[in-house]
Amino acid sequence: MPEKRVAVASKVGLHARPAALVAKAAAAQPVAVQIAKAGGNPVAAGSVLNLMTLAAGYGDEVIISAEGEGAEEAVEAVAQLVATDLDA
Which InterPro entries would you find in this protein's record (predicted)? Predict the structure, then answer.
């Protein structure tokens, strides 16, 4: 199962607008993408509510994973968004 660790780059963390953009990108993937804070339980990345319940703030490390055909590309697409300041 491919996974990638990235730091949350948005100043507000995975909240509001950044969470909506990440959830939209995750939901558009051909496989289910999961995200977890380091040491926490994974949640479906395609849900804004799930992302907000992570309480992942600026600089927090998250682990993005997926399974199935196209998983590596899906993980990379979501990881790039999380690692981008989506508030700018």
Answer: HPr, HPr-like, HPr-like_sf, PTS_HPr_His_P_site
